[in-house]
Predict the 3D structure of the following.
Amino acid sequence: MNMDRLEERMVFLRREIRAASAGHDRVRVRALRAELRQAERDWEEALDPPPLPRPPVREHVHQALTLLGVPSAAKTVVVVDEAFFGGTLVSTQLTSLRRDEEKSFRSARNARPYYLCAALTTERLSPVRGLLAISTWPLPNRVVGPLSPRTDFLTSAVRIAEHVQRLTALGENPVVAFRLLTQMAQNIPGATDDFGPADPAAVIVAAQAELAVHRDKDLRQRAEAAERASERLAEVNQLFGAGLKTAKTA
């Protein structure tokens, strides 16, 4: 019921309460007052509706990582969430997320459809501090080697540019997403000619051109490390690391 009809209902109920009170009909007065209180509560809710429930933090992180398609730092996840998914994340919410996910996995293995896990180094198969991945990704996608920071940056730039293209094709104007893409384009040779908004198509072409230089070697290194991990590590360590000293991101 809209607010106008609620207000009309409250006026009617107050008039009826006065009439019932004048007639000493206490039973009807009580019933009408109960209806009036409910109408007043409905009016208050219509005036200030409760906020829509927000998805849990891990779902927002999962959305951002799925769009990026590569292991990513918390600050990158937060920026992508702001650009495409409403911007409800802050970096402090992600501080203990991977540790909480590991505890959940150990207490009830594979009870969830996915886990937010660690990226692993190709050398020691140890977790990389600050990089998050998704457990459902193939193991080579969750391993990072010397070339991976650059290839992953270029891959994420392509995916963001493609997503911006989809949004603009739907008639949207994703200002924050364009700002993010423009910042990324400044670090890709040939992706932009000036400091205006980046052209998603130009970013894709430039990023793919550089990817062609590094991708094959990076994929070989990741595949070799993933094979070692699958042979030597238990499932939990394939997701969260071998328990060695945590590596730092480059």
The chain has two domains: 3-47, 57-240. Residues 244-250 have pLDDT under 50 and may be disordered. Strands lie at 72-73, 116-121, 127-134, 143-144. The chain has nine helices and four strands.
